[in-house]
Amino acid sequence: TLDVDARTATIDLDSGENITCTFTNSLRRSITGMKFNDLNGDGDKDAGDPGLSGWTIFLDTNDNGILDNGETTSVTNTNGNYEFTNLGGGTYNVREVLQDGWVQTTPVSGKYTLTITSNASLTNQDFGNFKKVSITGSLWKDLNANKIWDGEEPGLGGWEVTLSRVTPPLITLPLGGSLTTETIVPEQTIKTNTGTGAFSFTVEKSGQYRIAMGSLEGWQRTYPTDSFFDVFVNESGQVVTKDKSGKDLQFGNTPFYTISSQAKFVSSSGVNGQTSSVISLGVSTLTAEGNGGTSTVTIPDGTVITGIDGLDFDSSRLATSIPALNSILGLGTGVAADGVLQWGIPNLGLQFSNPITLNIYVGTTLNGQTLNILRSITGTSEWTDDGIVAPKTCVVANGLCSFQTTKASYFVAARTVATSANTDTSTSTSDSSSTVSNTSSSGSSSSSSSNNGGSTDAPVCGDTKPGSAPILLSWAAENPNEVILTWSKAQDPVTYYLVAYGTKPGSVEFGNPNIGGAETTSYTIKGLSGDTAYYVKVRAGNGCMPGDFSQELAVTPFGTQLTSAAEGFTQGVLGASSEKIVEKNIPQKKEANLLPSNKTERKDPQYFMYISLFVLLTSVTLFAIKRFRRSGAFY
Questions:
Q1: Which residues are CB-neighbours of 445 under 8 A, at least 6 positions away?
Q2: Burial of 613 (0-12, 13-18, 19+ CB in 10 A)
Q3: What gap in Å lies between CA 174 and CA 494, rounded to an integer?
Q4: What is the DSSP string of 25-46?
Q5: 500: which residues sit within 8 A by CB, 6+ positions away?
Q6: pLDDT at 437 > cutoff 80
Q7: Which band of pLDDT confidence, cut at 50, 70 and 90, is reported for residue 75?
Q8: How far apart are CA 126 and CA 357, in angstroms?
Q9: Which residue blocks in 229-269 are alpha helix, DSSP H?
Q10: With pLDDT > 90 as the criterion, what percentage of the chain qualifies?
């Protein structure tokens, strides 16, 4: 009986039996290696990769991948080394017992299959491991849209977050090389924690990764600027909480609402309704069409809008518009508005944490002119430049009056016009300005007098001309081929108004005296040619005498091209019983009747009396001579 381990042999001999024994000896062999922390996960034992102690390495006798009872083991020492000794010839499967939170990087197959056939021992049978990396972050509800997770703001649970592996582009130019694009391969998608909004990914390889969040309708990301974070995993066992530039892996989101589908705002109350403030998400630009052009309001990103009085307001009422042209009142005597814009909430004072920029369209004919900016909460009174950023004026360029303000909500771009009857302030006005009037009405004309159509009482030749000329305050084009004029009343005696226009500055070619009675302050000229400049004046009159013309106002309606005169206007005349229109405002003396358009001079009424008397006297004289001749009295 041979006992190899005891190195003995037991032989039973019979009487007279001879047995020859031969003893052959060979060296016992070993398998050694190291268990190391593969810090970069590349599968190679690099300088600096430390050994891992306390790991079990075993000889998997039945090659089932599991450490079974009776199988030979070796536990790594403080340097990570292991050793199997006193091994005889044969084949051995060497494996490790993998610990939680780690992945094996070498050998790739998970084991070494070794055959001992010589007297040499087997060394450097190393096992490399990479400790899994955790990438953690959160999503939060950015209530004030300030891109910072403030203490009271809650996490957002149930949102999807995706982890992708990024392969950077390969660039080996210029001489030969290849150029490849960055590739992004999604690996995991998880949902944030319901209570905290936290998320955590586990990765088993080093390299570059991208974390991107999903989106929900009605929400906007406030942080980061991009929709993702890029992170680098470069060491075994990392806990990654920041991206490659050092930013926390925190996604900020806020619910928003839109105004006219043009701008996004977030309410501090979380709903589009009663709130103490709203914040602009991104640079918000609102537009309003009217008066022949486009006006805009631009609100910087992060601008906080609050009520001037500190009270809550209804954010759903925020809007921008071009107000009705005859609704702007209270500007005062001698102030003419060339443009008007409403932004905010009518009749409610609002203020902005950052100056906002307004561009009011006033028309290209005002290019280069300086206009004053005024603001009112109601649009009908208490006009002020409070809140308008200095210089509180604008210089018109490309038809736009541009300025900044920190308060709302009605704005006008205005000029001061002369109030003297004989002063012409007609230099130029907007080709699409907003109407401003203290007394006006819609329709072709408006008057509280029963004296319509320019009809007046019988001439009272003792009347004097009206005490002053009316002042044209403004005009507006609300409908195609029409303009609405608004003027201040002339001083009495006044019984009617005349409107005249020409196509050249300083010239009036067409007139209409059928403009209502003494209280009329507004009239719509219809039938004008679109995109054509007209130069308009208005004058008052009475039963005996017309007054002086107002200053000239340049107007430009929009619409189709027309060739005929405006409705109710006749070239060279005021009306059916009319006077020749003259360019200079020279008062006329006691004209009871106005000459037809085919006459070239005016006659004083006494002229006709003298002619009649002369004819009568001549007739009487001739009759007397004839009778005397018959009676022979002259002989």
A1: 452, 515, 516, 520, 522, 523, 524
A2: exposed
A3: 90
A4: ----EEEEEEEEE-TT-SSS--
A5: 508, 509, 510, 511, 512, 536, 537, 538, 539, 549, 569, 574, 581
A6: no
A7: very high
A8: 70
A9: none
A10: 41
Q: What is the pLDDT of residues 352-366, one digit of tens each?
A: 999 999 999 999 999
Residue indicated by tokens 């002339």: 490
Instruction: Measure the CA–CA gap between 579 and 590, rounded to whole angstroms.
Output: 13
**What is the spatial distance between Cα 145 and Cα 237, in angstroms, rounded to a whole number?**
35
Query: What's the Rg (C-alpha) of the chain?
Result: 50
For residues 463 and 543, the answer to whether their CB atoms sit within 8 Å is: yes
Query: What letter represents residue 297's amino acid?
Result: V
Give 201's strand partners.
Answer: 135
Measured CA to CA, the distance from residue 299 to residue 157 in angstroms comes to 32
Integer Cα distance of 290 and 342 in angstroms: 12
285/308 Cα distance (integer angstroms)? 22
Residues written for the chain: 635
Other CB atoms within a 10 A radius of the CB of residue 261 amount to: 6
Residues 150-190 pLDDT 10s: 888 899 999 999 999 998 765 555 665 555 677 889 999 99
Q: Which two tokens stand for residue 516?
A: 């209502």
- The Cα–Cα gap between 465 and 540 comes to 9
Pairing of strands 293-299, 284-290: antiparallel
Average pLDDT over residues 260-275: 77
**Which backbone phi and psi does 257 adopt, to 5 degrees?**
-135, 160
In 258-398, where does DSSP find H-type helix? none
More confident residue, 258 or 23: 258
Q: Which residue has the tokens 């017992």?
A: 97
DSSP label at residue 617 = H
Beta bridge partners, 561, equal none
Residue in 477, 502, 520, 516 with CA at minimum distance from that of residue 583: 502
